[in-house]
């Protein structure tokens, strides 16, 4: 087993000792757990399913199960499918707006059927994505990664302050000193262990920070184990639980968002290799990641799961720990599959309060943005490129922060325009093609 002088595992095929790999894999799960199940809760609510009812619980279980399955597509792979990189898959927030609208007006049958078709089309993009890679030089991919990180940072702050959904942010406890004490304890412990210790404690710094925050939250009375007691031991899976019902409009909407998801995956794949190994992703890795993305979405939708995508916060873990081993993330995938099949295990993780997770993702989302900046350091900062950066970020983040600015656009277009990633990528690509190079 070969290691870099820094002791960091920079080869995806290297495997840390099991005593180190298991907590690192669990750390990947904890980092994405809340974000992975939240879209299912939102879409289930939009579809009118009872909160805590069996149908909603089923959707949450499928989110965990097929996030694990899709991650195995990425890390283990087969044939051309899979990047064979430490990329964690999870339920995508990018689809929430579209799917919530479709579920509310046409039902979950139409929404999930659109995901099956959209995922299949997304899978087919893998065969051509390498031929389109010239559209994504470091200037564009760096901007996409940076936009992803900057878009996610407010989510981290909302988690840290004690909520994510609007009704949670309106609660009196939102932003309380107790919430911030818990979140900041995670940040302080994670940073202290990362930079002032070595070995396993340094590599698992975020996980240990989350555990310390969890204990503090328990002492503050913020943890409830009631969901664990009420959860079942096993869950079954049902193909096409809501049937199959085709809608052209819903399919087009989901497919358009899938293109955005594919762009995000290109960015996450590039960020992973850059953060973990200091190199660019290969064409095969980009194509394999896209295949796995689309296949994971289609297979999940067959059994009632929402679309999957690469999770940027886990790119942050790779950057934070320097552990590039894909086998570490494979362990995380197996944990997710176990959580999906055994609800009690998932309930234990789900009992972790949002401020605890918020503290962890403040660091990780920030690392995603930093990875984007790292890619941009390869770009010559002349007037042309600075204008492209300025206009792209202004368009992408500006419309995301002020979504009512495009409230009269058609629903699908409005969703894409306010996604932060899509307008940033589109403007950056167009300007990079149209503006002449400076001499």
TrEMBL record:
Transmembrane stretches, start-end: 29-51, 57-78, 110-129, 136-157, 177-197, 204-226, 246-266, 328-350, 356-376, 388-409, 415-435
Cell compartments where the protein resides: Cell membrane
Domain of life: Bacteria
UniProt keyword annotation of Phosphoprotein present: no
Classification via Pfam families: Xan_ur_permease (PF00860)
Principal location listed in the UniProt entry: membrane
This protein's UniProt keywords: Cell membrane, Membrane, Transmembrane, Transmembrane helix, Transport
Membrane topology: Multi-pass membrane protein
Cell membrane recorded as keyword: yes
Family: Belongs to the nucleobase:cation symporter-2 (NCS2) (TC 2.A.40) family.
Protein name from the UniProt record: Uracil-xanthine permease family protein
Source species taxonomy: Bacteria, Pseudomonadati, Pseudomonadota, Alphaproteobacteria, Rhodobacterales
């Amino acid at each position: 087993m070969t290691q870099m002088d820094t002791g960091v595992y920079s080869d995806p095929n290297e495997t840390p000792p099991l005593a180190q790999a298991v907590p690192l894999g669990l750390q990947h799960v904890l980092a994405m757990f809340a974000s992975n199940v939240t879209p299912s809760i939102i879409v289930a609510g939009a579809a009118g399913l009872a909160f805590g009812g069996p149908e909603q619980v089923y959707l949450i279980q499928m989110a965990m199960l097929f996030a694990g399955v899709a991650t195995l597509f990425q890390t283990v792979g087969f044939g051309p499918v899979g990047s064979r990189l430490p990329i964690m898959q999870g339920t995508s927030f990018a689809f929430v707006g579209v799917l919530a609208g479709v579920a509310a007006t046409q039902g979950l049958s139409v929404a999930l059927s659109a995901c099956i078709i959209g995922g299949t089309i997304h899978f087919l993009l893998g065969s051509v994505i390498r031929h389109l890679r010239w559209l994504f030089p470091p200037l564009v991919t760096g901007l996409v990664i940076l936009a992803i990180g900057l878009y996610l940072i407010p989510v981290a702050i909302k988690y840290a302050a004690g909520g994510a959904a609007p009704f949670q942010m309106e609660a009196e406890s939102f932003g309380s000193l107790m919430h911030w004490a818990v979140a900041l304890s995670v940040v302080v412990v994670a940073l202290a262990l990362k930079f002032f210790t070595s070995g396993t404690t340094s590599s698992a710094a975020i996980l240990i920070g989350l555990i310390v925050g969890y204990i503090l939250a328990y002492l503050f009375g913020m943890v409830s184990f009631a969901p664990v007691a009420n959860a079942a031991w096993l869950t079954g899976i049902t193909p096409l639980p809501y049937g199959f019902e085709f809608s052209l409009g819903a399919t087009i909407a989901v497919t358009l968002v899938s293109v955005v998801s594919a762009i995000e995956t290109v960015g996450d794949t590039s960020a992973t290799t850059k953060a973990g190994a200091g190199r660019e992703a290969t064409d095969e890795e980009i194509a394999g990641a896209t295949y796995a993305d689309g296949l994971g979405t289609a297979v999940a939708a067959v059994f009632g799961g929402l679309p999957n995508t690469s999770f940027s916060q886990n790119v942050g873990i790779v950057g934070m720990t320097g552990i590039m081993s894909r086998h570490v993330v494979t362990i995380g995938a197996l944990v997710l599959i176990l959580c999906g099949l055994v609800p009690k295990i998932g309930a234990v993780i789900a009992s972790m309060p949002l401020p605890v997770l918020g503290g962890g993702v403040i660091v990780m989302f920030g690392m995603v943005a930093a990875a984007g900046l790292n890619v941009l350091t390869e770009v010559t900062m002349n007037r042309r490129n600075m204008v492209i950066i300025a206009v792209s970020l202004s368009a992408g983040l500006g419309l995301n922060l002020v979504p009512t600015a495009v409230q009269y656009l058609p629903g699908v277009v409005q969703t894409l325009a306010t996604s932060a990633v899509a307008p940033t990528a589109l403007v950056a690509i167009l300007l990079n093609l149209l503006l002449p190079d400076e001499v």
